[in-house]
Amino acid sequence: MLGQQFFRVKADFSIKETMRDGKSNLTMGTVYFDKTAKRLVYQIKFPEKETLVLTDSFYYRYKDGKIIEQKKAVNILSFSIFNLALSSKMSNFGLDGNPAFKLVDVTKEDSLIISTWSPAVEKLKEITGNVLISQKKKQLFGLVFFDKDGKLLSKQFFEEYKNFKGLEFPGIITQINFLDGKEFYKITTFKNVVVNDMNENNIYNYSIPVQ
Question: Cα(61)–Cα(169) distance, rounded to whole angstroms?
Fold first, then answer.
């Protein structure tokens, strides 16, 4: 199947993360993404019911059908795992062909192909540094992000891929953020992945305020 034939993905998710205060958080629910409608919708069931809706420009938080939080967001959807998977751009995290980054190095380490990408735009160089991408069996395996001074910011690992009607999607994403010399983990698990679902249109096209 060609990448452009994929337009929707839905999955049950759970997110376990360690917080700065030492406590752990667990969030569970269902996530919906429609590439055409440009909506990423998280219907959270635990710890309490609420809905998060992300567009290319805004983030909305709903409770009992009412907006309780709204803020501007920039380019969130383009680099979301859902959009990258549906667009067949996941293996290089969407950086291949992206004018904002340039490929500067490729190395092989055991079963991994590791590529180094540097910001190619001056404004971007002021806020971020290199991105390292590792591939295993032509699938995205790891991401490493550095700040503009070369300091390690975070790592992500993508594992337990499964094939859904031709769409390769990871079952587990582990993110490690490095803050103040400490490591903070965020582990996201996906189950019951559904591709090109034609039901629940009201969720995929979640109604948001006209801006």
Answer: 26
